[in-house]
Amino acid sequence: MIEANELTKRYGGKTAVHDLTFTVRPGRVTGFLGPNGAGKSTTLRMILGLHAPTSGTVTVDGRPFADRPRGLRHIGSLLDAHDVHGGRSGRAQLEALARSNRIPRSRVDEVLAEVGLTDAARRRIGGYSLGMKQRLGIASALLGDPPVLLFDEPLNGLDPEGVRWVRGLFRRLAEEGRTVFVSSHLMSEMENAADDLIVIGRGALLAAEPLTDFAARGTRAHVTVRTPQAAELIGLLTAVDADVTSYGERLEITGATAPEIARIALDHRILLHHLATEHASLERAFMELTADSVEYGAAGDLTGTPSARDLVGEAR
Amino acid sequence: MTTLASLNAVTSSAGSRPRFRDLTAAEWIKTRSLRSTAIAYGVTALAVLGFNLGVAYDTYTYWTTQAAADRAQFIADGIPLQHAFGSNAAVVMMLALGATGALTVVGEYSTGTIRTTFAAVPARGAVLAAKAAVLAAVSTVFGLLLATASFFGTQAILGARDAGIGIGHPGALQVLLGSALLAPVCALAGFALGALIRQTATTMIATLVVLLILPMFLTDGRYWSALVGHATPYKAWLRLADPGYTAGEFPWTTAGAWTVYAMWAAAAVGVGMVAVRRRDQ
User: Fold this and answer.
1) What Pfam family is a match, any one (chain B) (predicted)?
2) How far is CA A62 from CA A152, A177, B12, in A?
3) Residue B7's pLDDT is what?
């Protein structure tokens, strides 16, 4: 269990994290989402005691992590796969970590096998691909068999098989009753992996809720239609107050359900090639929620989306 | 496979309190698993031995003294002791060991390893103390081996002209130990600067300035200058390794020089431990 309470971090005049309060529960995979520069890494570093909060507190299983003399049995973490010395072998890196926490050496072989690095363990880390470094970082996190695990963008550089493996691993760790906290700036990475979501933007909390709730708050479901008689159908739909966006023969419709549209088309002998309800997209919900708080967005690419504050306001 | 059962097993075996020995063992694994460590020490050893044996060989080659009385004077003047560990060799060793010591810390900062280290061991001061202990041990063994090899190597070369001395010669042990311990003192100085500055290039420059350039500007002619100068490792080494020391206006004892060594080592460990305490990593 990770509990952050009014966590704030300022670097000089810049506020990286502002008044963040959330709880990450055991037995679930919790996604930690936000655009680049939202303060995810800063928050993770504060959880690990690497950075001291300007104000507020964060505890792990009831205690500030920095108070623990040895950490690996309390939190396993992967902040950045590059945070290793390239001159060392993967095995030496893990052996040093294990030894510092008095973890038996046999455990090093276990985690190496678990992440599939047994054969590469004696090679220098400098020659590893990013995906292999991620696996090594995950192995380090698993070393102490910890009840809490933190991963910062763990899917970067992994191939599709690796991504599938990592998702399965997170799921299993959570089912074993552990707290699994995974950051990402891509909603799609969390879609099939997380149970809960904590979303931040510009250092402030935007949402903290189960993934299903988050999906429900997203874009109103819309219907896509493909028809050679687009102009005709647009006229009829507009007449019943539906919103239509036209992409040639393809129309995106909100404000009318698929059965209603089918009925209108049938009544007016309009041929439909395609008719489908598009489920609310998590990605879109995320984009809309964080639209106002994108730190390094391209100018003008987010106009027309509702502001994050409005959405949060609605949620409350 | 990681299961809750194994979780409990590992956690319960962890019950006892943390030991410092685990940290030194971990730092030792880090030290020996880097090829660059062996290369740095190896190249330094070759350079230092090269200077010392080279000077002795020079003396051997251009030897002119024939009379037995002259040989006796050569030894009485302490010249074989000067050959045992020369100042060029000492300067090379100071810089190399200062850099090596600094790299044990800035090497972790520049690669980001330090965050992995501190996330595994939140007791940061203890990590730095363990680093210092391993660095001190390795560099002391290195210094002893190198000073011993230099001593016996140079005296063997001079011995070919019947001008060598043994380790029992007055002052010989002091030269050997004074030179040997210069290694850990400089390594720890670099270590402390690395922990303070954390940035590779700046740390290297600071190490160069503190160990070498500073003593160059401090002369024995004025009281304050002499006082500060005597507090630098290089001047302490000169005091210990120069058999022909003549008391100037502001004399000091060898005990004072040994104390300077000890103070630098102790202060360096303290600075390293305090430097990581408050700052964000």
Assistant:
1) ABC2_membrane_4
2) 22, 17, 19
3) 47
Q: Which two tokens stand for residue A153?
A: 């963008």
Query: Does residue B119 lie in a domain region?
Result: yes
Question: Which residues sit opposite A22 in a β-bridge?
Answer: A4
Counts of helices then strands in chain B (DSSP H, E): 14, 0
Q: CB B121 to CB A177 under 8 A?
A: no
Contact (CB<8Å) B123/A86: no
For position B246, what pLDDT does the model report? 78
pTM here is 0.85
A69 reaches B (C-beta below 8 A):
yes
**B interface test, pick of A75, A84, A102 with most B CB neighbours within 10 Å:** A102
Put simply, the answer to whether B115 touches A177 (Cβ < 8 Å) is no
B1 within domain boundaries: no
Fold type of domain A2-216: Rossmann fold (3.40.50)
Q: Which residues contact A103 (CB under 8 A, 6 or more apart)?
A: A72, A73, A97, A143, A144, B10, B14
Which pair of tokens denotes residue B44?
């330094």
Structural domain boundaries enclosing B246: 19-275
Residue A152 one-letter amino acid:
D
Identity of the residue in A75, A99, A178 whose CB atom sits nearest the CB atom of B29: A99
Residue contacts between A and B (CB atoms, under 8 Å):
137
In a mutational test of the A interface, the residue from B17, B111, B278 whose CB has the highest number of chain A CBs within 10 Å is B111
> Is the CB of B280 less than 8 angstroms away from the CB of A52?
yes
* Residues contacting A155, CB < 8 A, separation 6+: A134, A162, A163, A166, A184, A189
Phi and psi at residue A175, to the nearest 5°? -65, -25
Which chain A residues have a beta carbon less than 8 Å from that of B111? 82-86
User: CB–CB of B120 and A83 under 8 A?
Assistant: no
For the domain covering A222-278, report its CATH number. 3.30.70
Q: Which residue do the tokens 């075996």 mark?
A: B13
Number of domains present in the structure of chain B: 1
Residues 101-140 on A with a CB inside 8 Å of B are: 101-104, 107, 110, 114, 140
Mind listing the pLDDT tens digit for each residue in A178-192? 999 999 988 888 888
Maximum Cα–Cα distance for chain A, whole Å? 77
Q: Which residue of A has its CA nearest to B29?
A: A96
Nearest to B183 by CA among B88, B87, B97: B97
Examine the pLDDT at A312 and tell me if it is beyond 70: no
A85 inside 8 A of chain B by CB? yes
Burial of A278 (0-12, 13-18, 19+ CB in 10 A): middle
Asked if residue A135 lies in contact with residue A116, where contact means CB atoms within 8 angstroms, the answer is yes
- Which ipTM value was assigned to this complex? 0.89
Where are the domains positioned within chain A?
2-216, 222-278
Amino acid at A264: I
For B71-89, the pLDDT digits (tens) are 888 888 889 999 999 999 9
Q: Is residue B50 part of a domain?
A: yes
- Say yes or no to pLDDT of A131 above 70: yes
DSSP string, A141-160: HHTT--SEEEEESTTTT--H
CB contact under 8 A, A87 and B281: no
Residue B64 lies in a domain: yes
Q: What length is written for chain A? A: 316
The token duo for A125 is 């880390």
Euclidean distance between CA atoms B214 and B223, whole angstroms: 16
CB-nearest partner of A100 from B13, B22, B111: B22
